[in-house]
Every structure is written in structure tokens, then in C-alpha cells.
Amino acid sequence: MNLSVEKMEKVAFILKTTAHPTRIAIVQLLASQERLSVTDISEKLNVEQSLLSHHLSGMKLKGILSSHREGKNIYYALKMREVVDVIQCLATCTFL
Question: What are the HTH arsR-type domain coordinates in residue numbering (predicted)?
Fold first, then answer.
């Protein structure tokens, strides 16, 4: 395997930022939907909104997600699409 330093740093950043089952589930969900509200994500993942908001805001702060407000709702979308590729690579690992 021959990864450049830049690629290694990007992969390490993605892994650190998504290193939680809820965060991985958020990425997988948003990979299949253009955008979702916090309420939609909470219902689909069966995760309490306060805990979900913590994960979402951290991922937004790191540049993985983007968000915008429409009325009372905040909608999230994937900003860094490479995250999906990294998770898909991990999903194909034979040792998992």
C-alpha cells in the first residue's frame, strides 16, 4: 500500500471524526438522502435528539456535514462526500 502523506492525514481525520457508531449511521443515512432534519434523523436512527444534536454539531464543526435552518427545523447534509468512500472501504474488509 502506497498512500501519500496527504491521503493518510485525510483518512485519519475522517476516521477520527466518524469514530462512533451513531456518527457512522448518520453518514450512511445522509449518503442515501440529500438532506434530513434532526427530527427525521432521530426517528430513523432511534436516537435521542439531544445526543444526536451533539454528534451532528461536532461533525458540522469538523466540516463533514453542512446545515441550514428552515423555520424551526435544521436540515443536515453531507459536505465531505469522501467520508462515504472511507466507510464503504471499511465495510468491504474481510476481517470485520
Answer: 3-96
